[in-house]
Amino acid sequence: EAGVAQSPRYKIIEKRQSVAFWCNPISGHATLYWYQQILGQGPKLLIQFQNNGVVDDSQLPKDRFSAERLKGVDSTLKIQPAKLEDSAVYLCASSSPGGKETQYFGPGTRLLVL
Amino acid sequence: SQQGEEDPQALSIQEGENATMNCSYKTSINNLQWYRQNSGRGLVHLILIRSNEREKHSGRLRVTLDTSKKSSSLLITASRAADTASYFCATWGSNYQLIWGAGTKLIIKP
Question: Are A5 and A105 in contact (CB under 8 A)?
Answer without folding.
Answer: no
